Amino acid sequence: MITDVQLAIFANMLFLLVILYHHMAVNNPKKQK
């Protein structure tokens, strides 16, 4: 059973991953390592 706390933590982790991915994409527009 998923609790509200687990759901909130999961949503926050997804949000942080999206922000991090966007930040890296902006810093390295055409640099694929």
Automatic annotation (TrEMBL):
Membrane topology: Single-pass type III membrane protein
Pfam families registered for this protein in UniProt: Ost4
Subcellular location: Endoplasmic reticulum membrane
InterPro entries to which the protein is assigned, alphabetical: Oligosaccaryltransferase (IPR018943), OST4 (IPR051307), Ost4p_sf (IPR036330)
Keywords noted in UniProt: Endoplasmic reticulum, Membrane, Signal-anchor, Transmembrane, Transmembrane helix
Record-level GO cellular component terms: oligosaccharyltransferase complex
Major location category of this protein: endoplasmic reticulum
Domain of life: Eukaryota
GO BP, sorted A to Z: protein N-linked glycosylation via asparagine
Keyword RNA-binding appears in the UniProt entry: no
Residues spanning the membrane: 6-26
Signal peptide: none
Annotated family: Belongs to the OST4 family.
Entry protein name: Dolichyl-diphosphooligosaccharide--protein glycosyltransferase subunit 4
